[in-house]
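BUG-308 | component: ligand-complex export | severity: low

The export step for nicotinamide-adenine-dinucleotide jobs runs without errors, but we want the raw record kept on the ticket for reference. Input record follows.
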Amino acid sequence: MFGRIALIGIGLIGSSLAHVIRREGLAGHVAVSTRSEATLGRARELGLGDSYTTDPAEAVRDADLVIVSVPVGASGAVAAAISGALKPGAIITDVGSTKRSVIDQMLPHMPEGVHFIPGHPIAGTEYSGPDAGFAALFTNRWCILTPLPETDPEALDTLKTFWRACGSDIDQMDPDHHDRVLAVVSHLPQLISYNIVGTASDLETVTESEVIKYSASGFRDFTRLAASDPTMWRDVCLHNKEAILEMLSRFSEDLASMQRAIRWEDGKKLFDLFTRTRAIRKSIIEAGQDVEMPDFGRQAARGDGSKS
Ligand SMILES: NC(=O)c1ccc[n+]([C@@H]2O[C@H](COP(=O)([O-])OP(=O)(O)OC[C@H]3O[C@@H](n4cnc5c(N)ncnc54)[C@H](O)[C@@H]3O)[C@@H](O)[C@H]2O)c1
Ligand SMILES: O=C(O)C(=O)C[C@]1(C(=O)O)C=C[C@@H](O)C=C1
């Protein structure tokens, strides 16, 4: 599909892209660039690309597709560094979890004649770094593109074809709408997880060793998200501030209402809510966004459980 692809940032997302690009034969040459020598060295050991450099401008020279996969707060600095070396006609995209802030940071550095099309694969894990990537990460996951009004339709089609070749389904969205949707489906759950794990570790009446010993309960599902990369999530919070604050405020209101229902023993209210949320889980499974297996399939994976 492309003569040369430049991957700027080679953590979970960058390295997963490297694997799928190789598997699908999507580029003649993959140039890998990242900030630290240590990460770059590890990417080289893993054979993720064809050339390696800590200078992002060197990586993007002659590239037909540039994919920026760095924490969202670093997007502006990366755009400034590559700006002068971009090839006319190149497609520049990103994978950042927030979109308005990335556009505000990167767009001013984009020279005439290149195609800047922001994007976000809704696919990830709690692991980070170049060892974390795998080719199947994007399979059957959504990738949201947030093209700008002036985006060239042909370049947009090319980027869509690329993501489809990576296994993704494509949706298009306005960047501000993207940030509100992701604030509720991704950023809020993450913050609830950080908060609940923090609360449990601060308790005085229950010891930390008891929390860990009996964690194979509801708590465990929050700890997976709470183990995610602190830099990435700090940046998401700071760069989607308004939408996150709005969702947190809605969440706090609803939590207070639940607190009140428990205090006044309003069983009907609790039962109705729990029935509604159970139906949402069912819809998620029907939409193919998760598997219909007890405990997310963990017991089956250990070989001691079945679907029924
Ligand atoms: N992890 C997820 O679940 C997930 C999913 C979708 C999108 N994203 C987004 O993808 C991006 C990358 O996330 P990740 O999970 O791959 O993170 P990661 O921590 O695994 O990797 C980040 C990479 O960026 C590099 N980097 C950091 N600052 C840099 C800079 N200033 N210049 C050049 N390189 C720099 C790091 O060395 C590393 O190679 C983030 O914007 C994140 O919001 C993450
Ligand atoms: O499953 C996870 O570990 C994730 O949180 C991945 C997840 C998500 O919320 O779905 C996290 C942030 C991204 O921007 C995209 C994907």
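Assignee comment: Attached the raw record above. The longest helix spans residues 175-202.
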